[in-house]
Design a protein that fits this description.
The complex is a heterodimer of chains A (about 260) and B (about 375). Helices cover about 35% and strands about 25% of the residues of chain A. Chain A is built from 9 helices and 10 strands. In chain B, strands 2-1-3-4-5 form a 5-stranded mixed β-sheet, with helices on both faces. The chains are: A alpha/beta (about 260), B alpha/beta (about 375).
């Protein structure tokens, strides 16, 4: 069996801000239908890497193609085929969710199925509300709905669960898994190791503008253990978060 | 076609956002109206009818014609009587205006043989009411004179006795100033605040994650603001006319000058919004630009009251050019070519502000 052609190919991407080399030769491929995670501390260059592939930021050197389209040559062509959720998900405050989705439809030259999109992220009852009335988790879910307006091949999510409580985070994981089942490729950045471990098929670990490891979560853990790593504290059968969820339930706490 | 659709969607969104923003509506529409009311046409109820005392000493058919016309005039509450009683009624506050048609009055132009002027006494304690009433009387007498075969100006026909009080048609002075002020505030603040907010929160970035070029948004925003300026011009002029404003020049010229002024202040707004990183930076700069102009550009009171040096300096402010141009068109019916320096001043400011906006503007 031959591996499917990669939908994203990044080759030796570089970006400098003044004397700071924010991204310093990043290469990777993402297969169609994959959930691909980029991990790394703040300032590692995760967001800049995403923004170059999305056509949001000019590439200093190197190349990136999405769905066969060269970002450097045709950034608008790439933007038309992808969905983007930015780190700070902010929209026009005075418009309702439906109005915003219809507006975004126009910006992508498509007719937005606002009711369907809102149903996908379980915000149907908020259709006529304005964004500012949404809770943090609802905002994140809405920004995913907005990213899906153009039926994108690839979805880029920049720290989608940062700032959410455990219930809202787990709920969003469910939304992201559903997207994968429907054939979307997802690229996300995160600070949460548990999220990367549970959600991602493969993970790239970035530091100081470079990818320092790239494998499946199991593969990364396996190779660390192979090198003789022993955890200081023995892993228990449950984590404190498991306790928290057990005590407070899976129910979303919004409004 | 597709482009037009995108533009239209953004235009509608931009207009909706403005209209739903209570602060923006308050500052751009209600505040000017409030100021207009406070300064000029306070007291709606009383304005509905003006107390006019009418004394006919003429004993001529022409005098009776005037009495008939004034008695029939809507908005005037006419009481006839003798001069002594009526003038005393002014002192009591029972009359806004007393009109005395003198002995031997005839409907002839000033300077003609047998001309004697009508005498009007205004109540300086009710300046708004008495002067509005006087305006009504003047226009009625003018009409009667016109139908009688005369013509020309009516003001020499009536001699006015007024103790203190404001100029005859303060509203004619005020409305163009309020228009200028509104156009400045809308252009400057709707952009300086609104745009900086979109920039700071990242809503603009989200827009640019779509394949639609950034220029569309800017074009749609500018167009929607110009439409709002247009709506405001109509509302403010309409209310002004209701309260006795005389719109002498053509409406299309008022609109043209208003939109040119709006472009200037929108460009200044984009310059501020482009430079500022957040609202805290934009607010003081926008206020620093607009507040002095509000008081130095002859918005509420004529600049002639200022010291000479200040008059000269403030003559170069963009709002001064805008106010003066609007006044020339609204009050005097000046054509665009007759506007002279005011029009040139507006064009020069449009160029300056456009260059500033291009130099200072940043999307992020």
């Amino acid at each position: 069996m031959t591996a499917p052609a990669p939908i994203i190919v990044a080759r030796d991407l570089r970006k400098a801000y003044g004397s700071l080399q924010a991204v310093d030769g990043v290469s990777f491929e993402v297969a169609e239908g994959e959930i691909f995670g980029i991990l790394g501390p703040n300032g590692a260059g995760k967001t800049t890497t995403l923004e170059m592939i999305e056509g949001m930021r000019p590439i200093d050197s190197g190349s990136a193609t999405v769905d066969g389209i060269d970002v450097g040559r045709d950034p608008r062509g790439v933007k038309a085929r992808i969905g983007i959720q930015l780190q700070a998900s902010s929209f026009f405050d005075e418009l309702s969710l439906t109005e915003l989705l219809v507006l975004f439809g126009h910006l992508y030259h498509v007719k937005a199925d606002s009711a369907g999109l809102l149903a996908d992220v379980e915000l149907t009852e908020k259709a006529t509300s304005q964004v500012r009335t949404l809770s943090g988790g609802q905002k994140q879910r809405f920004s995913i709905a907005a990213a899906l307006v153009n039926h994108p091949r690839v979805l880029f999510l920049d720290e989608p669960t940062t700032g959410l409580d455990p219930q809202a985070r787990r709920h969003l994981w469910g939304v992201i898994r559903n997207l994968q089942e429907r054939g979307h490729t997802v690229v996300l950045t995160t600070h949460y190791m548990e999220e990367a471990e549970l959600l991602c098929d493969r993970v790239a670990v970035m530091d100081a503008g470079r990818i320092i490891a790239l494998d499946s979560p199991d593969g990364l853990i396996g190779s660390l253990v192979d090198r003789g790593f022993v955890k200081e504290r023995v892993e228990r059968a449950a984590s404190l978060e498991d306790v928290f969820i057990d005590l407070t339930g899976h129910e979303l706490r919004e409004d | 076609m597709r482009r037009l659709e995108i533009f239209w969607a953004l235009f509608v969104a931009s207009a909706k956002m403005f209209v739903r923003n209570r602060a923006a509506i308050f500052f751009s529409l209600f505040l000017p109206l409030l100021i207009m009311l406070i300064f000029g046409v306070l007291d709606f109820g009383k304005a509905a009818s003006y107390q006019v005392g009418l004394v006919d000493q003429s004993g001529t058919p022409d005098g009776a014609t005037i009495v008939g016309a004034l008695t029939a005039a809507p908005g005037l509450e006419v009481t006839t009587g003798n001069a002594e009683d009526e003038l005393a009624a002014i002192a009591d506050g029972g009359r806004d205006l007393v009109i005395v048609i003198p002995s031997g009055f005839r409907l002839v132009l000033p300077g003609s043989e047998g001309f004697v002027p009508i005498e009007a006494t205004v109540n300086s304690n009710t300046p708004q009411e008495s002067q509005t009433a006087l305006l009504i009387v003047q226009s009625i007498v003018g009409q009667v004179l016109l139908t009688a075969g005369g013509g020309g100006s009516t003001s020499p026909l009536i001699t006015v006795t007024a103790v203190g009080g404001q100029s005859l048609a303060y509203i004619d002075f005020l409305v163009p100033g309020i228009l200028g002020m509104t156009i400045m505030q809308l252009g400057l603040f709707s952009v300086a605040f609104g745009f900086v907010q979109l920039k700071r929160t990242g809503a603009l970035r989200r827009l640019f994650a779509t394949p639609t070029p950034q220029g569309y948004f800017l074009g749609a925003q500018v167009s929607s603001r110009l439409l709002l300026v247009l709506v405001q011009i109509f509302i403010l002029l309409g209310i002004g006319i209701y309260f006795g404003l005389q719109l002498v020049g053509p409406l299309i010229e008022v609109v043209g000058i208003g939109l040119l002024g709006a472009l200037i202040f929108l460009a200044i707004g984009y310059a501020v919004a482009g430079w500022a990183k957040n609202e805290d930076q934009a607010a003081p700069v926008a206020n620093l630009i607009s507040l002095p102009m509000l008081f130095l550009s002859g918005t509420f009171f004529p600049r002639e009251a200022m010291p000479d040096v200040l008059q000269t300096v403030t003559g170069f402010l963009p709002l001064t050019y805008l106010n003066d141009a609007l006044r020339q068109v609204i009050n005097d019916g000046a054509s665009l070519s007759a506007l002279g320096t005011d029009f040139i001043g507006l064009v020069v400011w449009a160029l300056i502000s456009f260059v500033l906006a291009v130099r200072l503007f940043r999307w992020e």
